[in-house]
């Protein structure tokens, strides 16, 4: 079975963050079959508490009309946290593809309660990236999720 190319692009973003010394979470925003935004967790790199993968992706996508967000899909390697889920709900992005939620279960039920379709792939590469990172960097991971 072929892997989803958009999830692959999000994984590439996660790997880039890891290579930069950051947390391996990546995201892409897809509209009409084309990536219009990509990003990764840059909290370590930028020193910003809110520079998560999904928010970084949305910032990099730039200012878009509401109709674009409302007909897009966001792919994230990890279940979006409450902050990122809030941004997804705010812009009414109707579909979220989650690489995995075993290492961290974000605010998926909040998104679903707001009419967003959430699909979890449980992708082995996403799980491996986060499992290895959390084991090697528990203090940094806990900082990222506010523990």
Summing up helix and strand content along with how strands pair, one would put the structural category as alpha/beta
Poorly predicted runs of 5 or more residues:
none
**Can you summarize the main beta sheet?**
5 strands, mixed
The proportion of strand residues reads 15-25%
> How many strands in all?
5
SS element count, helices: 8
Q: N-to-C SSE series?
A: HEEHHHEHEHEHH
Which shape, going by the Cα principal axes?
globular
Work out the radius of gyration. Answer: 14 Å
Strand order of the largest sheet: 2-1-3-4-5
What does the average pLDDT come to? 96
**In whole angstroms, how far apart are the ends?**
38 Å
**What is the helix content?**
40-55%
Characterization of the model:
It is a single chain. By secondary structure, the protein is of the alpha/beta class. It is built from eight helices and five strands. Strand 3, helix 5 (about 80-90) and strand 4 (about 95-100) form a beta-alpha-beta unit. Helix 7 crosses helix 8 (about 140-145). The radius of gyration is 14 Å and the shape is globular. The relative contact order is 0.16.
In short:
This protein has eight helices and five strands. The protein has helices spanning 5-19, 43-46, 53-61, 66-69, 82-90, 108-113, 124-136, 138-144, and strands at 26-31, 34-40, 72-76, 95-98, 117-120.
